[in-house]
Every structure is written in C-alpha cells, then in structure tokens.
Write the structure tokens for this entry.
Amino acid sequence: MKLQRVGVIGATGLVGQAIVEWLLRFGYLPDYISLFASQSSDGKSLTLGQKNFSVLSLTEKAIQTLDVALFATDAAVSRQWISIAQSRGVVCIDNSSAFRQDPSVPLVIPEVNGHVLATHPQVIASPNCSTIIALLALAPLHHTLRMKAFTACTYQAVSGNGTEGLRTLERERQCGDSFSEIYSDRIEGNVIASIGIPQGNGFTDEEEKLCHESRKILASPELQATATCVRVPVERAHSMALQARFESSVDLAMAEEQLRYAPGIHYTLTSVATPFRCAWNEDCFVSRLRKDPFDDKQLLLWTVGDQIWKGAALNVVQILNRL
Amino acid sequence: MKLQRVGVIGATGLVGQAIVEWLLRFGYLPDYISLFASQSSDGKSLTLGQKNFSVLSLTEKAIQTLDVALFATDAAVSRQWISIAQSRGVVCIDNSSAFRQDPSVPLVIPEVNGHVLATHPQVIASPNCSTIIALLALAPLHHTLRMKAFTACTYQAVSGNGTEGLRTLERERQCGDSFSEIYSDRIEGNVIASIGIPQGNGFTDEEEKLCHESRKILASPELQATATCVRVPVERAHSMALQARFESSVDLAMAEEQLRYAPGIHYTLTSVATPFRCAWNEDCFVSRLRKDPFDDKQLLLWTVGDQIWKGAALNVVQILNRL
C-alpha cells in the first residue's frame, strides 16, 4: 500500500493509461490516484486494472493536492504545468522531451543510473523510448568495457504514435487504402525511414535524441551515437540493431555474462527476439550478440522492448518507486 | 529482335517469371524463349507478358538446343545443370549462390563491374539481391572515395522467399494466426532478425554474402562489410540503412553529385524512399544521404530496390544484354 497522492497527467493516452495500470500493479491505492487530461476529456470515466476512474481537466488547485505528478503529455504541456507543480512543491516525473537536456533535471533509467535519484530531485525526466531500450542492453557492456560509440538502426512500432498510430495501421489493413495523417506514406506493408522532425544535418530529432540522451544517462559526454530511425508495421514493441564500439578489445564470453545478469533484460543465446513475442513484457530482450569480424572492439546485437511499458510508462513508475 | 535461343530454368518461380517478362520487354522473341522447371510443372502453361508459354522439365537434350541458359534455381540445381550446359557450350547466367565465389566465374552487376564481361565468360553469376541493392548505391561512392567498410541493416520483403513468402504474409493477414513454415515466427505485424542459415560466428550466410560478394564485385579483397538482415512484413522491395566508411574525409556535395549521375539509381534529396513506392521499379532509390557527425570519413544513407527485378531477374537479363 502506497499512500502518496499521485496524479497522472495525460491519462487518456496509451502511455498515461499504462502508467495508471502500473501504479495499481505496484500497489498504489486507486483512491490516491488522480487522472488528468485535456478539457475535452473532462468528466470522462476510464476503467483501468478493473478500477473505475474519472478523468478531470488539470487546474492549479488540483495540482497542489498531489504529492507526485506523472506527465505523459507532450513537451509544451509538460513545460507549462511542471513549472506550476514545482512551485507548489509537487515532485514531477516527465515522459516528454521538455526537460531531458536541462542540466538541473536528472534523466533516469533506474537500472542504469538510478543512483542519481539519491539527490531527491524535484523534477525527473524519463528518456525517449528508443534510448531506454538501447541503453538497457548497452549500459551493462559500457560499465565494464567503456563504450566509445554506437550505431542504431531501429524498427519502431506504430504505437510509438499512440492510439493514432494503431488506428492508422488498423484502417490501412482493413481498407487497403492509405489513411495516414501522421505518416508520410502508408505504413501497412511498408517501412518509413523517417521518424520525428528533420534537422539541418540530415538526421531527425528522434535520431539525435538517442545520442544526446545516452550521453547524459551514461555520463559520457564524448559518446558518439548515430541512428537511422524507421517505422515498421508492427503494433507494439520497438526493435533495434545495435553496433557498439568499446575502448579495447572485447571478450565475447564476458560480454554475454554481463548481459545474462543485467537487470531489466532477458538475454537469449540461440533464439531471436521478435516484437510480436516481446510486447507486453517488462523486460527488454537481447539476442544475436556477436563480435564484429573486422574489429575486435566492436559488438553487434539485436534488442527488442515494449516501448509503451519499459520504454515509457513502466520506466516512469519505476522512477517513482525509487524515490 | 534478338534471335538467341534463351532457356529460363526455374521459370515458374517469382524470379523465373520476371526473367521471362524482362526478356520480352527487351525484345527477345517469344519463340526463342524456352521455359523449364521441375518435373512437377512439366506440361504446365504460363502466360507472361501476354504470351503463352509451355513449361518443360529440363533434359540434357533440351539444354543443348540453347544458346544461353538463365538459372533462377537453387544452388544445388544450378550446380548440377550448369556443368552439363557448360560442356555443351551453352552460356549460363546463374542467379543462385552456387558459383558466386568461384574465382573463374565473374559476379556481375552490369552498372558496377560490367567491364568484366569483356572476357566472354561462359558462366556468369548474378549476386544476392541485397548485395545488388547495396552496391548500386555504394559503388559510385567507392569509385571516387574508396570505400573501406560498410555496415548494412536490412528491411527485407517477404517475396525474398518467393511465392511462399507472399502466401505466408497473405494468410497471416487474413486469418490472424501464424502459418509460417518458412519463418521462425509470424511475419505479419512483426519483424524477424534472422535470414538464412546461422554461421558459427553469430552471423547468417545471408549476412556474410553481402561481405564476400561486395569484395569480389568491387575487387576490394580488404573491404569490411557487416550486416544485420531482418525480414519485415512488406510484399516487395528490400530497404536498407547503410553506413559506409571511406579512405579519407568525404565532401557531401560531391557524394551527392556521384549519386545523382550514377546509373541504375534514383537519388532523392528531400523525400524518403519506401518499399511500397519503389516496388516494380527498375531503379533503386537512394535517400537520406548524410554525413556521420562524428566521423568525417563516414556517410549514412537509405536505399530501396525491387529485389525481384533489379535484385535478381532484371540484373540477370541485363547481364545477358551486355554479353
């Protein structure tokens, strides 16, 4: 039983709902959980984890009744309300990108850098889903081998765009036509190598986040990370092919040992993890670990994780648990 | 009008049929094209390019009536029949892996190394589909910048497994269940990071082909190529994210210029090529060219090509045209 008064902001979205479900699973009492969303959802009721909740629109009065506010909102909403919540002494955990690069805000994956929570920060940011899934696999290797660089090619599920992504895939499956308002092309029977906003250098912001966030989380300001982020017609769970370069020559057996005992990941030697099997799992799944035949300092691997759970909602609630 | 007597071996498969269609498009006369397949297809008739053909089972007698035999068969069948055809003076172009690493057999992408055909070889091998699609984009860069290494992450269509791949995806779409005999997991709504036969070093033969074949085609025995090959629920056209390292620092504008005027590819600066749009095209489509922000000698790019056409059938017929 956890008696903190927890508010979930953006509670009607996929991540917001999953946050409420994880709170219940971790023993937070329904009566102490308040759900907030935009005005259009005011008064709506939601059944999550077999409990009924009513959704309210957020007010300054409401926010000061909370001990903790969990934000599953976009960066603009987070920025607006977190400054208000903060001034009322409410601890905020934010899933948006608003504060991730703020030097005064820790960016946390509990299994990787949970120790930074010891300073009792008032605002904590949760990383982008792809960063969490990549680093859960790479951090254990980094800690013993010191990672200098990595490259990621992603295979990202449509639920990364929330219910709108799922609905688009579903409609395209049923009608054959393209119904995409969120994608530049149909996604069913297709892949789209463009996620996020194009930057001047040819990368997208989604691709750059992976680098900036990894540097902060691993406290490795010189880490070199490049990515190609690709949307695939998969409902749920992001996959990625990673190639990582370390300071010195890598012993494969030792790397395997690191992954076998690392928290939050499930390492498989022989089978290949797929998003269809790994969705709705707390752990991320690492497979196909192998050495680069041309570079003794490089490893390749394949990792898959539920980006709504560990990539977002579960990570937020795990941060709360660690506070 | 081309009066060579051409046999297509394995003519009932996706690649075999596409070879016949490309022969007709290039002006080969239907009466001079013979279709062969396994005994189970003997006597079957096929309509391709609005012409009717009857399919025969291959015999030693039949093969010696040909000037050229085009093999869209598996390696075992190619090995068996090419030695017979060769002894009868028939020129053979083989789409299988049987002779690709044979030092006496040229491995040819006409746009890349068509000059090796000047020696009038009697057996010519056509590369694996992923090799063709990767090298059409990389070879023009290699020729001016000297490529030292590249990494590929692929997004390969189910028709890479022929009609069986297409049928599997179709059935899984209709019934929801997994019907896969050729895949280790369902492919609809999923991605599978395992194509080909696992090798001792953790790579698959599909992944290794890309390296061995690229070395031979580019005559660069020291080229270092690593890959992660992944099947995606796309009907047709393979995509891949490539990261290439060159001998010295790269000028992006010059690299763009190379791609803009390279044969067989269509370079787009702003839009992102998708397999849905690039299927049924002769050209491969290159987009998202960008410099590695951490390494002046590296480029990243995204390339998409119809693996049944340019990745197989069209390449075979283009080799024939060049002879």
User: Anything to note?
Assistant: The CA atoms of residues 106 and 124 of chain B lie 5 Å apart. Residues 6-127+313-322 of chain B form a domain with the Rossmann fold fold (CATH 3.40.50.720). Chain B touches chain A through 46 residues (CB under 8 Å). Chain B has a mean pLDDT of 95.
